[in-house]
């Protein structure tokens, strides 16, 4: 599998990259950096350092993308991941430097030069992907698959009751991407909460492995542990980006999915970035309200359930 990861590299974003690097069937073609979790330049450094920590420094190009959302003020999640996004670990600067080419152009060039070959994992706000498809609409068909971590499946968000971080930061970009005609699989925050938790015991087992990557994981995850303790009273952590990556690497993790119509609210106040996910449990919308007309065709495969124990094993094994 030839893979690009679009990432706001901090915390779990790093672990998702490690998962991809650990998989023998994956050729990681590029990391592209999008605005999101922490200061943009920090995220570029975090991506470079993660590659170095995995012994891949200098082997995978890193491209800087769009440093802020299309229409909204920037928003970060440093309160979860630390100011540097790495639990304020003060890692040294990696030797590898970012490429001169813009991430949006790198995505377009890689995808258009290799039609039907490239899978893209979008684990950040969708600014880079939205602008890439605006600049070159043919990437929607030329990309083999677009995996997105974002949104909710009609459940509680993690920024507002209605919205998840990646979509909330740049709802206009998210809307553009879901309307562009990509072959989308969606891993939501709702699924993340249900199935991606590394418990305190899981995290202790990782720490006890005492490998370079387990130490990296434990150090980078420390702020999320502290956040979880303060907010929820336990030290388990959620791993949305790793879950999305694990699903794309191994379909057998997925135990239920549904083809859905996914739409992103851009006009709402309370519902800014709410992701409306159609459901077979609902009546046909033209019957429920004729004014709505017939629903459009599904535009995404929404992952509904995964083998959570297997996910935790896969993540742990990647750190051995
Ligand atoms: O809502 C989860 C997403 O936003 C993840 O991609 C994580 O990086 C976060 O901040
Ligand atoms: Ca992310």
Indicate the topology.
Elements: E1 2-7, H1 12-22, E2 27-33, H2 40-53, E3 62-64, H3 78-81, H4 103-113, E4 118-123, H5 127-135, H6 139-142, E5 145-149, H7 165-169, H8 171-178, E6 184-187, H9 189-195, H10 200-209, H11 212-232, H12 240-249, E7 254-260, E8 262-264, E9 275-277, H13 285-288, E10 300-306, H14 308-317
Parallel strand pairs: 1-2, 1-4, 2-3, 4-5, 5-6, 6-10
Antiparallel strand pairs: 7-10, 8-9
Helix pairs in contact: 1-12, 4-5, 5-8, 10-11
The protein binds alpha-D-ribofuranose and calcium ion.
Q: Could you tell me the CATH topology label.
A: Inosine-uridine Nucleoside N-ribohydrolase, Chain A
User: Domains counted in the coordinates: how many?
Assistant: 1
Number of strands: 10
DSSP helix fraction: 40-55%
How does this structure look, described?
It is a single chain. The chain is an alpha/beta fold and 320 residues long. Helices cover 40% and strands 16% of the residues. The strands form two sheets. It has an eight-stranded mixed beta sheet, sandwiched between helices. A two-stranded antiparallel ribbon has the order 8-9. β2, α2 and β3 (62-64) form a beta-alpha-beta unit. Residues 8, 12-13, 37, 77, 123, 149, 158, 164-166, 189, 240-241 line the site of alpha-D-ribofuranose. Calcium ion (CA) binds next to loops.
